[in-house]
Amino acid sequence: MSWRTIIISRRCKLDYKMGYMVVRAEDTKRVFLEEVAILLIENPAVSLTGCLLEELIRQKIKVIFCDSKRSPLAELVSYYGNHDSNKRIRMQIAWQKETKDLVWTKIVSEKIFRQAEFLRDLHFTAEHDLLQNYLKELKPADLSNREGHAAKVYFNAVFGEDFYRGANDPVNAALDYGYTLILSAFNREIVANGYMTQLGIHHDNVFNHFNLSSDLMEPVRVMVDRRVFSLDPDEFEHWEKMELVSLLNAPVLISGNEQTLLNAIKIYVRSVLDALSQDDPEKIQFIQVYEL
What we know:
Blueprint: E1 4-8, E2 13-17, E3 20-24, E4 28-32, E5 36-41, E6 47-48, H1 50-58, E7 62-66, E8 72-76, H2 85-93, H3 97-121, H4 125-137, H5 146-159, H6 170-192, H7 211-216, H8 221-231, H9 238-245, E9 251-254, E10 257-260, H10 261-277, E11 287-289
Parallel strand pairs: 1-5, 2-6, 5-7
Antiparallel strand pairs: 2-3, 3-4, 7-8, 9-10, 9-11
Helix pairs in contact: 3-4, 3-5, 4-5, 6-8, 6-9, 6-10
């Protein structure tokens, strides 16, 4: 079972030989690919051979490429994630609107619940109670946009009244970095199950290649928020990035069992896809925060 997150920071050449990724720099190291879940290429001066790229795709290893500022820029996505992808894509196109609305309502409800839980942990009692009221007001498909109202209350409580998403500051940089890592993990699992990331159940941006991933990851964003809050970054440099990368192997609970976040995402994604394809939203298994 793959579990390792490998980060390549220095200029080097990456090659493939007999099941191993060979890292050639001043010295040579080998990494057993069957253990790797995510490969993060931080340095744009890194070169990769075609043989390695082929094997990374074959083993469904998520590869994330960073720009010159070491921020995630792109990722490697296979054309075919499963032996019966055609069948699953047809199923995805045929998902019932009523089922999609019910699943999205459950996802939004879980996201707001986890946000309220974090506010409770931070002793923001009034804000916690307000989000609990939003949960009671939630309508199918969130037609009244309780998610948006909850987000404003939540972010202003956690990160301060002057905080707003999109500002050029270390907190937003850390949030964006963490969300991108989580999004990549969701992309990997959706493709591995034979579905398309482009076709979402709520997100429907024609310029977003990852609409479905953006839908499914919503409740997990809170885990990034918790880690960024604990870091309280005055700057966003290498150490802060490594702390966010380590989140992928943090212990969480799902269906009463402890898993790493990466493995829990695999279970959660499969459960949501089953719920959508079998018209049964009760199949969804959500991830619970355990230790972050």
